[in-house]
Amino acid sequence: MTQFNYSLSAIVAGICLSVLFLGNSGGAAANDNFYTGAPSTGGGTEATCSTCHRGGTYGEPALTVLFAEQGSTEFNALTSYVPGQTYQVSIKVGFTGAEPAGYGFQAQFLTDSTALRAGTATATGGVQVSAGGAARQYVEHNSVSNGGDFAFAWTAPEVGTGPVNLYAVGNLVNRARGTGGDNGSTSPTIVALTEGNLSSVATVAAITGRLYPNPAGARSRVQVEVDVKQSGSHRLTVRDATGRLLTTAQLELSSGGQVIPLMAENFSTGLYTVLLTGSDSRFVGRLVVR
């Protein structure tokens, strides 16, 4: 029994050292190491940063998560999301003991009922998005940060997705070679978001429109026919059934009827979400390619 315990400790230590040498200072998920404490794709739950990063004097990482709506610079706590809306997400990793020499984090959005990827994250400076199994996306630092402030964009999933959870963990490190003397989250910070109703959001109006032809052939020239409420900048995006972004375009549109060409020649058979978003209005369409 003693020999077994020793071997298990050696295995854990070896894993942590291997993780270190793989370059996790540049993001664990980039090296297929997932530590958000969320439900895992194979059952059970993922580990957290404290699996390897422990023994420090910085205390449990304290995470603050805030959101700003598209076009706003005002960050607030969020309890519900608007389907298709893009948010700026701010994650601040704080310390509860001594001040660390560096900071890191990892986070992902999952559906509450099925633990599948929810929405699409987009990296900004100091942050990267790494792929995981089952089309998951992990947002994390791309190098050890001198400060604990991280930000990225998140486009909420489509209508009917239901409740979504953000799982986030933080890491406080001493920048020494090794994982000892650090403090990683022992459990995730979970932000639960319910699905908001588009019609209940006063600042967001539905744009009337349709996709034609729909269903479409694999080499069809699809038209997005919409009645734009207000002139101005609009963003057109197309995502596949897993939420992967296939195409995006920034358009200056006049008010009134518009016909926007959408090339489907590179789309394989499947279901796609077409989203046209203005400053205070949006159109969401479902395109079937056969």
UniProtKB/TrEMBL annotation:
Signal peptide: 1-30
Highest taxon of source: Bacteria
Keyword Glycoprotein included in the entry's annotation: no
UniProt KW keywords: Signal
UniProt keyword Signal present: yes
Record's protein name: T9SS type A sorting domain-containing protein
